[in-house]
Amino acid sequence: MRLTVGGVLVYAGIVVLLVVQTVRLIQMDQLWADGIAFTPVCLVAVVAATALMFLVGAVARQPLIDGDGPWFSTLGWAVVIGLTGVGMAITALASYGNEAGVWVTGPAVFVPFWVRKLEESYREGVEEGLRERS
Questions:
Q1: Least C-beta-crowded within 10 Å: which of 32, 93, 96, 115?
Q2: Per-residue pLDDT averaged across 67-89, rounded?
Q3: Predicted local distance difference test score (pLDDT) of residue 53
C-alpha cells in the first residue's frame, strides 16, 4: 500500500516538527551547560532518528505500519515507539523538565496508526464510489 498525498503531507508535517525540535534542542543552552555530554547528544540523536523514519516513509510513500514492504514499512511503528520511549526516559532520568522535553515524539507515536486508518477509509470510500457508478 502506498501513501496518498494526504498521508505524505501528514508525514512531512511530522518531519518538520521533529526537525524544529532537533534544532531547538541543539540551540538550548541549558542542555549544553556542562559541555558536550552523553544525555543531550542521545536526546538529539533520538529525535533526529525519529524524524528520519518519518522522512523515509514520506519520500518512499510507504506507511510506517504495513504488513508488506521494506523493513521500515513493517517495523517502522515499533522503531518509532522505541525511540519515543528512549527519548522520554532520557528526559525523565536527566531531569531536563518541560523545556527540553520531547514534545513532538510523544504524539508522533500515534501518527502511523492514524494515517493508516485515514488511508483505509479513503480507499473504502473510493471503492464504494466506483461500485455505485457501475
A1: 93
A2: 85
A3: 92
**pLDDT at 98 (0 to 100):** 58
Residue 109 grid coordinates: 507515536
2 phi-psi bin (left φ>0, alpha ψ -120 to 50, beta other): beta
pLDDT value, residue 50: 92
Alpha carbon dihedral 2, 5, 11, 15, in 10-degree steps, equals: 130
Instruction: Evaluate if residue 131 carries a pLDDT over 80.
Output: yes
Cα gap 31→37, rounded to integer Å: 8
Q: Which amino acid belongs to residue 110?
A: F
Three-state SS sequence of the chain? CCCCHHHHHHHHHHHHHHHHHHHHHHHCCCCCCCCCCHHHHHHHHHHHHHHHHHHHHHHHCCCCCCCCCCHHHHCHHHHHHHHHHHHHHHHHHCCCCHHHCCCCHHHHCCHHHHHHHHHHHHHHHHHHHHHHHC
Of 7-16, 51-60, 70-79, 102-111, where does mean pLDDT reach its minimum? Answer: 102-111
